[in-house]
Specification:
With 186 residues, the chain is an alpha+beta fold. Helices cover 30% and strands 29% of the residues. A hairpin with a 7-residue loop joins strand 3 and strand 4.
């Protein structure tokens, strides 16, 4: 119900940059978690997936500039530390590879809040600050070359939930702000 209200509010202020004519009375406000390609959040899922792939490649290759561009807050600090640790233990070049999706990328939840309270007229976008929790269920591997050859590890299934955020009044990409974990009861 919260996602319905938030989608209603975002659509009412025309804050979907890829669909500025979105109507708050459209049945699309009910499709937050849909993985279909024609939903309002499909471009957000695509952008988050692209950022997810770029971020994992950046951590594997210790590309600090890209990590700074695609992360924020405490998550940025964790990713920079992960890249540093990975390269301190084995300074050779690593390769992250996404083998496939185990299930489609899914927006699990979305929230919004008015974030820009300035008096001046905006030059770009709207005043909303939006966060979305995106689920990635993937098969991936990290190749670490040994002294004699490049090891080809078996792909592992990885389930991750990342919180992406965007200040809609800036022309910037969606950035990963936090990581959430699913609790598994035994």
């Amino acid at each position: 119900l919260n996602d319905l209200f938030r989608m209603y509010r975002i659509a009412g202020s025309h804050s979907f940059p890829w669909n500025p004519n979105a109507s708050r009375f459209s049945p699309q406000v009910l499709r937050t978690t849909s993985t279909k390609p024609n939903t309002w959040l499909a471009p957000l899922r695509d952008a988050a997936f692209d950022s997810y792939k770029q971020l994992n490649m950046a951590v594997a290759s210790n590309n600090v500039k890209t990590i700074h561009q695609l992360t924020a807050g405490a998550y940025k600090k964790r990713m920079l530390e992960r890249a540093k640790t990975l390269h301190r233990n084995a300074p050779t070049r690593k390769t992250w590879q996404l083998h496939s999706l185990a299930s489609p990328v899914q927006c699990v939840s979305i929230r919004s809040q008015q974030g820009n309270f300035g008096k001046a007229e905006l030059l770009f976008g709207t005043r909303w600050y939006v966060q979305a929790c995106i689920k990635f269920d993937t098969w991936q591997s990290l190749s670490i070359p040994s002294s004699s050859k490049l090891s080809a590890p078996e792909p592992k299934r990885v389930l991750e939930y990342l919180v992406f955020e965007k200040r809609m009044w800036y022309d910037e990409p969606w950035v990963a702000r936090d990581q959430l974990w699913q609790v598994i009861h035994k």
